[in-house]
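Long-time lurker. I teach an intro course on protein structure, and each term I like to show students one example going from raw sequence to a predicted 3D structure in token notation. This year I'd like something fresh instead of my usual example. Would anyone be willing to generate the tokens for the chain below so I can use it in lecture? Attribution to the forum is fine with me.
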Amino acid sequence: HFKKLLFFPVLLTIANLGYQYFAVKVLNKAIQNPLSVSIPEGSIILAESLLLLLVTGFLSLVFIRLIGNLRANGGTMIEAFKETLPRIPASIGAGLISCALFAAVLLPYALPAAYFFFLKHNGPLTVSFLFLGLPLLIPALWLGIKLLGAPLLVILDSKSSIDAIKSSFALVKGKWWAAFMRNLIPQFGWTLIQFLLMFVLQIAISLLVVFLTKTTKITPETILNNTSIVLTSLMQILFLPLTTASVVIWFEEMKK
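-- Reply from a regular --
Happy to contribute to a lecture. Here you go:
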């Protein structure tokens, strides 16, 4: 089913590249001369950011649904679109509840810690950030694993927002370490493979750059900047189906 799954990463990559091209162009302009960026340009970046967030979120949900259908009894991309549309309100609701839970868990510690380290502490900012940020990783990681099943429950099991949050907690109850390791190992594996592929390709490109700069007038910076964008996009297209499928498989295994 890998060919069927490539369509969504391609769409996401095109949307990201279009946004990055325009946003980086305007941001570079703002760095050189902050007053040169007009209000319409800033408004367009904000609108594009929100639109990209919505499109990316929706396509990710459709992607999850398609993988679930293919693993169950097959299905088409159009069917996945149609089945995901009615689940958008519940998905947004589950996302808002998740954000509220993260705020409830993290803010009681984060606010006084931030006040102490950033306003009362005279040490380096990086040290303050480490002391503030590292302890927050523990509750954030604990809650993140607890809530990992919520969007899958909404999309694949048609749960409501609140039921999805409750069921996600129940899914991991008494199995937090198992849930953590079953998600960590495949994701770490795909990341490692992606890193090794990028490393090998970058070496090959570096050798090509040396050859081209000796035989043509093309500058190394032009080649390296363009190939970096292309490689990053290619890795996203190739590995997004694998990483998303790993999460769906994790979810199905946790329900057993």
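Some talking points for your students: The two ends are 24 Å apart (CA to CA). The mean pLDDT is 77.
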